[in-house]
């Protein structure tokens, strides 16, 4: 029975998603929970598993197309689905056709239903459809297209071909390397077969969706590989599947092709039309795209990123000895990173974008002299390469822009600020930070104290921990404190959520903040962890700001901003001396609230509760101090 694959709800308030890449093609067999496609939303990029086993009989949503949650994406049939039946029908018709005399070209075309029966015959109009996966004999098969490698990515550059025209490839085997402004990655083969043609040269940039190559089971055409003259008239005879051969005079110098090489690698132009052997592209590249990387292509999938040895890799001049993409070289030049000193984490030791960013961050880390210094994250580093440039907004940045404007339009927002003396907490941190880090595995900053005080105050002031539905005329007071923590990433501002934060200790909150922040920056956070928040905390003080007026993260009704903790002289009340001036650690707390449900007095009472908790500094028990 057919099974529908639908767009899932990947987080709270997510109403739509974009299909960024299909990992399976029509007619392919899929298993339960096997990754089927990649989907991007404003919160996360993730893989969607197959809900059932069977044949992917139909794809309903194309790559880069955006649909609503619940929309049908594809249909999976049974194991004997249409895709399998079609292939069987082709084979049967080929056998039936063998009973009548045919021209040599017709004989080869009909004698190649299996990969082992391919022959380099002239095929002006191959009958196999692209969705057939290249199972029919002929020069046309499954197209390999430029995938959408991230949100807002509209084009990519082919940096290196790992296979040559005529090479055998297996499904999911690395086929080529592609570089975009977001990622450097290997593109796997969508199906098994022979690489019939390559349409895009190395270092050539094409749009997402452009055809890069064609994989099928017919003979390779394209003229990219040297073609021995004696191979041109050669005609393969039908083999064991066809006991009644019918070629009039097959010139058979090879009785049977080797089982590992069903299609001869020498690729000679066979059609009379110029460029016809390059399939749909209809044009022969000015430079053979397989001439340079042929040594790597001959090695196989186990060494796709090994140095080519021919000097054709653009990164050979960096002194690292490994291939380096143009994006990585440019990024290294912008950040002042010596690639020869960077250890690559990619396949075969290839240097990736993340390696350069990590090296730049390490180099920029200040010496451990000041207690309050910290190494800036890659997102905090200014990108000077964009000067004088106009470019399209990234998908995440466009979503953030739309959400922020919608938030201001939907709710009546204003901000209240109080000043808090956190000197006692500063003293506690000095006493406990070494032991705390050894015990909990994370550093003890001010943020866990602010978070702990905030979730405790939410229990006492439920109106601040609520959401309003104005159309329905209802307000929901939440019974849990799901604390969102704003995290600055390379892609933009994201808000992972600490669920049930009100049940956690100070140490538990500290561990959760560190873990979520790290996984959010490395794009390893799950969709569930990016949704379900009831209140948000944003640490604007990490950038040195005293305070700001944060915008509410809908459908919440409040957000708390914590400023920088600074030492300055303030007037304090001494029991013996009265009013005196002393140096204290001070911080501003700013709460932006939705005046539709939270009044100014409610916001002030909430801040007063947080202020009293912090100034009292009674966290000795949770820190293991007497």
Structural features, described:
With 626 residues, the chain is of the alpha+beta class. It has helices at 82-97, 104-110, 294-299, 326-335, 353-364, 395-410, 423-440, 447-460, 506-521, 600-616, 620-623, and strands spanning 3-6, 16-22, 29-30, 35-40, 45-49, 54-59, 66-68, 72-77, 142-145, 155-161, 168-169, 174-179, 184-188, 193-198, 204-207, 211-216, 413-421, 466-469, 474-477, 483-485, 487-488, 493-494, 497-498, 535-538, 558-562, 566-574, 578-594. Strands 17, 20, 23, 24, 25, 26 and 27 form a 7-stranded mixed beta sheet that branches. A 4-stranded antiparallel beta sheet has the order 1-8-6-3. A 4-stranded antiparallel beta sheet has the order 5-4-2-7, with no helix packed on it. A hairpin with a 4-residue loop joins strand 18 (466-469) and strand 19.
List the helices and strands and how they pair.
Layout lengths: L2 E4 L9 E7 L6 E2 L4 E6 L4 E5 L4 E6 L6 E3 L3 E6 L4 H16 L6 H7 L31 E4 L9 E7 L6 E2 L4 E6 L4 E5 L4 E6 L5 E4 L3 E6 L77 H6 L26 H10 L17 H12 L30 H16 L2 E9 L1 H18 L6 H14 L5 E4 L4 E4 L5 E3 L1 E2 L4 E2 L2 E2 L7 H16 L13 E4 L19 E5 L3 E9 L3 E17 L5 H17 L3 H4 L3
Parallel strand pairs: 20-24, 24-25
Antiparallel strand pairs: 1-8, 2-4, 2-7, 3-6, 4-5, 6-8, 9-16, 10-12, 10-15, 11-14, 12-13, 14-16, 17-27, 18-19, 20-23, 21-22, 25-27, 26-27
Helix pairs in contact: 4-5, 8-9, 8-10
Can you give keywords for this protein?
626 residues; alpha+beta; 7-stranded mixed beta sheet
Mean pLDDT: 74
The description of the largest β-sheet is: 7 strands, mixed
Structural class: alpha+beta
Number of DSSP strands? 27
Number of helices in the DSSP assignment:
11
Beta content: 15-25%
Helix share bin: 10-25%
**Spatial gap, N to C terminus:** 67 Å
Overall, the morphology is: globular
Regions with pLDDT < 50 over 5+ consecutive residues?
80-139, 222-321, 367-375
Radius of gyration: 31 Å
